[in-house]
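JOB MANIFEST
job_type = single_chain_structure
chain_count = 1
residues = 277
[input]
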Amino acid sequence: MIRLFVPQPLTHDAAIMPTLDQSRYLSQVMRLKIGDSLLVFNGVDGEWRCVIAEVLKKGVVLRAEDAVRPQATGPDVELLISVVKKSALEFAVEKATELGVRRVRLVITHRTQTQHVRMDRLDAIAIEAAEQTGRLDVPLVDAPVKLGALLDDWPPDRRLMFCDESGGAPVMAALNPPPLGEGDREAVEGGDPSAGAGSVPPPPPFGWSPSPDGGGMSQPWAVLIGPEGGFAPEERERLLGLPFTTAVSLGPRILRADTAAIAALTLWQAAVGDWDR
């Protein structure tokens, strides 16, 4: 069934006005008629079955009928990618959306070749990918920001997986720490009965954080992909010195930025994402 993203609130009997381009797609490309059904989502109210209520010269009017799926979001992971060539960047945004990222942040590094970025085009690509893959939300796509400024304001609770072509631990080893023993888990959660008063529990293993459902992977993450040619030495040195970053290797071959983004996100999802659901 056709899926459409709209920004309007979705409630029973609500009248929904798609954009002119969406209306043309529904009426002229897909040849939908009054009474035909489609699925609609807005990133807040879940997924709804809507019907074509009116077909006007200025566009189509939809009517919300039934809630089909409640709102849900995937794991809190962001993609940080250096601005690259237009086709590669668009491909990376499309595949990152398909792989479940919550946000795409464009980065300017020392070796980034400055070029104009059409943010409206990237937003449209993210929306289309979300429509086609059954997502109930659309990732944000942020305008380019210098890497240094981004790191200056980085929230310390968000882990940063830094894909380093010059070294780093294998991804799966870095993302899969040894399992916690019972005593370690109690200490991490602050409940070690053997610990003396005022003792400080040891830090949790990389990537692990207590979560209400017991899954242990509630910590927010980000994956950083550098430019063609890699990070400058001073950028790499700073990244390696930050407490929230871990350098990982994507294998013995040098990957293009868009390929590296797909590989890194795939491995992240397999290791600590929601692919076990």
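[summary]
The longest strand covers residues 59-69.
Residues 191-216 have pLDDT under 50 and may be disordered.
exit_status = 0
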